[in-house]
Amino acid sequence: MQAACRRAQTSCSWTQARGMAISVAPPKYAMPGRTFSGKKADQYEWYTAMLAASHTSPLLVLNFLEFRADKLVQLRQDIIQASRRVHKPTPDAPPRPTPTFTAVRSSIFGAALRDYPDLNLDTVTRITEGVTGPVGVLALPTLDPPELSAVLRALDRNFPPRPPKTEQELQAEEAAKRADPHTPGRREKRMRPIRVPEIKLLGAMIDGQMLAPPRLQEVSKLPSLPTLHAQLVGLLSAPASQLTMVLNEASGGKLHRTLQGLQKSLEEQAGGPPA
Fold it and tell me: What's the pTM value of the predicted model, to 2 decimals?
């Protein structure tokens, strides 16, 4: 089990959701000049480097609940397979880096976000409000919308969002709490709840800015970067090609005939050719 935990870059204690949250608010009791030390300093530098790499390597911020190490290993394999279906390896091309998952310490990660320059902290606060439990970061090799779309589909396929409870279900739970015990005078046998793994996409760090899930979905629907480059080149070259066409027509005599027609129309308006 310990080896499986190391492969998933996570902790076996994730089977129990703890009250952890990402906060970018300033510390309540600020101490000027205070810095992290030891392991916390290493984590802070590591997370800051990850955020800086978001200009070329997008980061998906995920919230995990009720996860075991073996489930995280399986999730990592599914994400790698989804990435390889978009970018199929070829014998001639060098192996392409695969997405990597990292479990982060929420408090240190929040401090790195707070100190990152020119970050839209309002969006970070909005998407992390009320979030508890472990947090992980999934780093993609490059910003490739088709690959991003495949990874998001893999997440939804493995862990579809839980539907909200209906009014009848809420009433049934409330009635069960108020119901009389089956055996009066004896303590009810404690039943361990069935833990269902759940994953929630909080947002994504792309090009140094945090995007909420709706904006991230819009990015995933874009074409690939080579296609976008070709479209941009086509837009930029369109005016130049039109100017070239006009000049070619002028060199073929059309401009001369156009000027002759203009001269004739002016002469007719003046009542005859000038003396």
Answer: 0.67
